[in-house]
Amino acid sequence: MAVCCLSSSQSKFNFEPLFVIVLLLLAVSGNGSQTTVVGIPGETTTLQCTYSASGRLNDVSWFKGTQQLLSQYRDGEQFLFGPDKARLSGTLSESAKTTTLNIQQTQCPGDEGQYRCEVNVRGAPEEINLLQLMIKVEPSEVPVLTTQQLNDQGSTKFMCSGQLGRPAKGITWYRTLNGQQQNRTSEAQSSDPVLNGDGCTYNGQSELRVDVSASDDGAQFTCMIGQKSASVSLTAASNPEITYTTTGALPIIDSAMGSVEFVKGSAVTLICSATGDPQPKFKWFYREELSNTREARSGNRDNSSVLNLYYIQKPGYYECQASNILNQLNNLPSKVLRITLSSPATGS
């Protein structure tokens, strides 16, 4: 009997702590739910939580991950936290049982992620609501559509490259002839999206191969990304003589400053320009010697083709790099311009 009783006591000792832990988790979790909110870069995004508990409100806390962003109290007092607190604000309505977190000048991708609000009402379990902020960017540029005839039998490759926005949209293909449109997307091969230099949007490309014949005379092939599209019209007098109308051009640096002399401590402005379709974007790099690893430099915020140097202290080599969607996606070298800075010659 002693063994029996000891076994019963030991069993009770093992299960009671587990039971307490389960109750504790239920009390903290409340009625957690998740909502997806879409934010647009540069605009104000509002995240809203509602709670159901009745009673005197103690406080509300907002978090992104482990970082606390906002604490709110029923008397209207609130405290903001974190490096971006200047862009944050909140509202609290005890009568409507709602709380909001407002994010001004929404940033991509920095503000994207999971947020949560924790509501504490006296005498009630804590309520936790989860919100997923998804940043949305529509493609802003017309895609670039190029063609390449692969052989004398009319086998042709259509290549469509462009900005896919965020989340990355797919590239859709159509063939139109005599007012009849066919979706040819299933025949295309698309590459995985590549994160753009802005860290927010994606670039992508898709290839469609077609055996063009005289029956394609007058046909139009179109690639579409979101609401942006580019088309190629085919004119085939007799197979395989085909005339293509294409769009897009690789960037070519057409003018730039050469060697620049400066006085130590002075300000210098370097300028680079390039042609291309779409309009090229620019990156700048510096190295003290050509054999050294290059260091990135930031161009003018409003015009990346301009590099402003303040209080320059030493000569070196500055590279102006122009690129657009064509050489970004096809791994072609960007056009590079080297600008050498040298000290002015001293008089005898």
In words, what does this structure look like?
Helices cover 9% and strands 49% of the residues. Mean pLDDT is 79; it is low at 1-32 and 237-246. It has three domains: 30-135, Immunoglobulin-like (Sandwich), CATH 2.60.40.10; 144-247, Immunoglobulins (Immunoglobulin-like, Sandwich), CATH 2.60.40.10; 250-342, Sandwich (Immunoglobulin-like). By secondary structure, it is mainly β. The longest helix is centred in the first third of the chain and has 28 residues, at 2-29.
Features:
mainly beta, Immunoglobulin-like, 5-stranded antiparallel β-sheet, 2 helices, signal, Ig_V-set, Ig-like_dom_sf, disulfide bond
Q: Sheet with the most strands? A: 6 strands, mixed
Model regions low in confidence, pLDDT < 50 over at least 5 residues: 1-32, 237-246
Distance between the termini: 114 Å
Q: Assign the CATH topology of the largest domain.
A: Immunoglobulin-like
How do the strands of the widest beta sheet line up side by side? Answer: 1-9-8-3-4-5
- Overall SS class: mainly beta
Number of helices: 2
InterPro entries: CD80_C2-set, Ig-like_dom, Ig-like_dom_sf, Ig-like_fold, Ig_sub, Ig_sub2, Ig_V-set
Membrane topology: Single-pass membrane protein
GO cellular component, one term: membrane
Signal peptide: 1-32
Give the SSE map:
Blueprint: H1 2-29, E1 34-39, E2 45-50, E3 57-64, E4 67-73, E5 78-80, E6 88-93, E7 98-103, E8 113-121, E9 127-135, E10 144-149, E11 155-165, E12 172-177, E13 180-183, E14 189-190, E15 194-195, E16 202-211, E17 220-225, E18 228-238, E19 241-244, E20 249-256, E21 260-261, E22 268-277, E23 281-287, E24 295-297, E25 306-309, E26 316-323, H2 325-329, E27 335-342
Parallel strand pairs: 1-9, 21-27
Antiparallel strand pairs: 2-7, 3-4, 3-8, 4-5, 6-7, 8-9, 10-11, 11-16, 12-13, 12-17, 14-16, 15-16, 17-18, 18-19, 20-22, 22-25, 23-24, 23-26, 26-27
